[in-house]
Write a structure and sequence with these properties.
The chain is α/β, with parallel strands linked by helices. It is built from 14 helices and 13 strands. Helix content is 43%, strand content 16%. α1 (17-31) packs across α14 and α7 (204-220) packs across α12 (328-339).
Amino acid sequence: MNKKDKKVYFVTGGGTGGHIYPAISIAKALRADANTQKVYYIGNPNNLEARIAKEEGFEFLPIKITSMPRKLNFDFLKWGIKLDAATWKALFYIFKYKPNAVFGTGGYVSAPAILAALITKTPYMIHDSDAHPGIVSRYVSSGAQFVSVAFEEAKKFIKNDNIKVFGNPIKSEFFNITKTQAREELGLGNEKVMLVMGGSQGAMNINHTVINCMKYFAEELKIGIILQTGTKNYEASLDLLEKIYPEYKKNNQIIVGPYFDNMAIPLKAADFAIARAGSLSLSEIAAVEIPSILIPFPYAAADHQRKNARCYESAGASLYIDDDELNKEKLQASVKLLVQNPDKLTAMSKAVKSFCKLNATEEITAKIKEISK
C-alpha cells in the first residue's frame, strides 16, 4: 500500500486518567496497524495527556480548553470563547492533516476536535467510560458514526443507534502475568491479599481508615495488604502508619508504596480490592476478576463514580460504602465479610465477569478503521 493510501487518525481525550489511558491504548493500536500512516494526539498542553502522549511517541497537537463551568455566569461566557477558539484550532488541524477519522474518549478536552469533525463531516467515533456518560458524549453522540460505551446502563443516555458495549481498553500487561508470578514479584505468600488503591493521587480518607484497621487486618484476619497511598499522600500515610502500627515494618506481607507503574502486578496478586470507582479502575478490577469494596469519590463530575459503583453493587460484584460513611468499624466488617466467607468471595468474582471486556481495544480499533473515509 502506498503511503498516500494509508490512513491518518486523530485521537483526543484528557484531563483524567479515565479519558487519557483508553485514548492512548487505542492510539497505540491504530499506530500498530499496517494501513496507518500516522496517529496524532489532540489535547491540552497543560494536562497529563501531553506528557503521556509524548512519552508514547505521538505527535501532540495542542488545544487550550478547560472544563465547563456548571453555572451560567461570566466564567461560562469566558469558557464559551475558549471553546470557540479551541474548535477553530482543531479545524486548522483537520484541514492541515486531513484525518480519515477522529476518535474521542469524552470529557471537555475532546470537545473541540469532535466539534471540528462534526463541522467538516469528518467521520468520528466516541467512547464513554462511565455508567452515566458525560455532557460532551451526550451532546455529540447523535452525529457520531459509532459510539462505544463501557456500561450497559450508559446506552439509555446516548442518542445513536450505532452503539455497543465494548468495555474500556485494557493495557496488554494484564494478559502477560499470572497470579503466582505477581505474588512472587511482590514477595507475597499464599494468604488472602487485599489491595487498597485510591488512584494515582490516592485518597487520604481511605488511607487513614485502612491504616487505623491495619493491625486488625494483619494480625486478626491474617491477610496480606498492598496499600497504594498515592504520590501526594505517601509521606503523610507513612507517618500515620508509624504512629498507629509501627510493627508493620516487621511484616513482609504488608507492602506500602506511593504508586505502581504497572498496576497489573498488584491487581493480579490480590484476592479483592478497596478502591474508588473511576471507570478505568473498575475495568482493571474486572479484568482480573476480583471482588471489590467501592468507596466512590464524592466530588466526581456529575457524580459518575457513585453511579459506576452502584452498577457493580447491583450486579453483586462489589460492596458499597459512601465516603462520608467510611469508618473503622464499617471497613473492618466489610473486609471480614469477604475474608471469612469464601463462597461470597467466589460469587462476587463470578459477578464481576459480566463487566470484563478483554477485547475492547481490538473491537474499538476495528470500528474506527471501519468508519474512516
